[in-house]
Amino acid sequence: MGLADSMGKLGTLLQIGRTFGMRDGLLRLGYEVQRSSGLMSRRMQSVRGWEFWGLKHIAPRTSPEDLLSIRRQGGRPFFFSDSRSLAIDLGKILGAGGEESVVAEANGILEGNLPFFGRLSFACGFPPKWFQNPATGQRLSPDRLWTQMRFASDDYGDLKFILEPSRFLFVYPLARAYAISGDERFPTAFWSAIENWAANSPPMSGPLWICGQESSLRILAWSFALYAFVHSSATTPQRVALLVSLIAAHAWRTVQTVGYARSQRSNHLISEAVGLWTAGILYPELRDAATWQKQGALLLGEAVLDQITPEGAYLQDSFNYQRMVLHQLLWTLRLSEIHKIEIGPEIRTRTIAAYEFIREFVDSESGHAPNHGSNDGSYILPLAACEYGDFRPLLRLGSCILDRTTALQPGPWDETALWLCGKRAQAAEREPAYEAISTPGYHRIGEENSWALVRAGRYTRRPFQADQLHVDLWWHGLNLARDAGTYLYNGEPPWNNGLAGSAVHNTVMVDRRDQMRRAGRFLWLDWAQASGRSFSTSMSTLPANSPNRFEGEHDGYRRLGVKHRRMVQCITEDAWVIVDDLLGAGEHELRLHWLLPDLPFEVIADSPFCAVLSAEKMRFHWNVFSSSPGNAAIIRGGKILAGDIEGRNRNEELLGWESPTYGELCPALSLLYRVQARLPVRIITVILAGDAVQLRQSDNNLVLSREASQVYQLSLAPEPTVGGGSV
User: Fold this and answer.
1) pTM: predicted TM-score of the whole model, two decimal places
2) Can you tell me whether residue 640 is helix, strand or coil?
């Protein structure tokens, strides 16, 4: 190894150190030292097995009979006192067909078909085969020490597939079916699963104890099931005692590695804080309950202030993780209200901010939000007959707990609020005025039914995706230009978090390089920083509080001497213009990418490029122009369907795919437009819905008109300032 290589590696290590910072680096180092030295393993073994977790040790003054009778009498209140009392309102929300579907899903679980990641289902048996990867058939030894494991291995594949059944998210469909039908098979199945899990995975033994977050999410699911089935004949004092022993062991386990969660500064810490707090609040009989409640509250306050900005953006830059975090915060706020316990006011304040932020990016027609950022399939409160991607159950729940106005009309999304708030949601007396927002890093422009999200952030901590200036475009409920999602964190290359790169986002890639330097599956160096503003132009016909134009730039290609500037403008509801200016010197390869829905398409012109997508409601013309010659290709599922790409590489394997949830990969259309030229270069995308707006090229200008009147004009020549364009 030469001196230059050594210095390069040293520089990378120093950058990684700066990325994590002194505090987080020391916390992570402490965790890794304990794992590698055997200290953590010896600590786990010191309390391994059931001997240390019987009631005489964890709740010496409480009997199994007391645990059950107090809860049946309402002495430890929960969101509801009797799940069966919700049956009438559930029937009104779901209707006869909806009730049948809920019961059918629960019957499927009893037959061994378990839900995975919000959208998928795998045959796992029942009780589930806890140590088997259902996607590959690989099996993990139940005797394997978790302190010697990682989340991916040739032996067992992606550990997330093994851990998912142990989140016990299947208890929520069982609870819903029991509330509707009163069928004792459903609580009996839950208790059978608990006994089987405990027999196969005693406290601190085996791989299912690997993660404090997983332990905390089990505490929430088990607590929900306990109260849902508390009046069932299948719920006996001995079974409740077993469950409470497991919850105590899980809370203790969570505390042991909370330093790791703090070092990650992610949803892990929020989950673990909520799990500890919940164990302390709902099970005060436990010897350490008060300590867990206090520690959970302190950790939650720390995490919320650290991870949610005052404007409500979540610093993991993931809408699915933001939903997950909001579910846990709303759970905590509601329980604190029921138990009349003061919780830090900053927690409620930041929860409201996060709720208002995500609400602005939920499409009003479909209820879906952009598949922005990491998406690991987490959906910890599956309590509504809505698709995984539908955020309306969250919006209804938040409106009830936070007392926020919402324009949602009654629908199946009301069910989650019924479970946690005990009442049917009511429609707002008036609809709140639609108002597009501009939060640091995120811009929403357009109108209610034709709008775009533009990503333009400045990172103060490690980013998770190289997606600066990505555009997500929505038209009347259709996600027209979309984010690819995640698919797998732990797959074989390129599926080891490969969809986090620049190539698959709706932006421009320069010289086939990501906007940032990749140093691991979840680690980026040389951060790309972006700036931008959204505003209303003089030509805008939208309401004054609805910006119709974004202008911004990022410096991710500064090492190449290139700057990327982008302008996005909503001309009318049916016409959008995106202008990309690549500024600098020298010759470069530029790749503009658009990920489109898997719709029938036709290429009707190559130069300038034009393709027509045919959706159920509308035909969309996708036009691309450039100041230097370019060529286009359309790729579906990694295969070129039209056009060609010169010099293919591994990035092309990722094109033409999208992942609605973890572990699911679906075909989509990638429109790739390539220019090889000396800078500066301008690339213009014009998207037209239907025929209301016409497009023509006049000399070096593009002209948009409607009803024979010109509405917009812009030049194909690159400009030193952003965008250009005029009425």
Assistant:
1) 0.94
2) strand
Q: Rounded to an integer, what distance in angstroms lies between the CA atom of residue 517 and that of residue 519?
A: 6
CA–CA dist 9, 28 (Å, integer):
21
Q: Give pLDDT tens digits for 40-96.
A: 888 888 888 888 999 999 999 999 999 999 999 999 999 999 999 999 999 999 998
Residue range 612-622: mean pLDDT, rounded: 95
**What are the Cα distances from residue 69, in Å, to 27, 75, 85, 225, 397?**
43, 9, 19, 16, 30
Q: What is the largest CA-CA distance in the chain?
A: 88
Q: Report the distance separating Cα 603 and Cα 611, nearest Å.
A: 4
643 with 632: CB under 8 angstroms? yes
Q: Give residue-wise pLDDT tens across range 140-151.
A: 999 988 888 887
Is residue 663 within 8 A of residue 488, CB to CB? The reply is yes
- What is the pLDDT at residue 522? 87
Tell me the torsion sign for CA atoms 119, 125, 127, 133: negative
Give the integer Cα–Cα distance in Å for 454 and 443.
5
Read out DSSP for 611-634?
EEEE-SS-EEEEEEEESS-EEEEE
C-alpha pair distances (Å), 63 with each of 55, 66, 81, 184: 7, 5, 21, 25
End-to-end Cα, the chain, rounded Å: 60
Report the amino acid identity of residue 241: A
Report the range of poorest mean pLDDT among 40-54, 447-461, 463-477. 40-54
Q: Residue 528 in contact with residue 468, Cβ under 8 Å?
A: yes
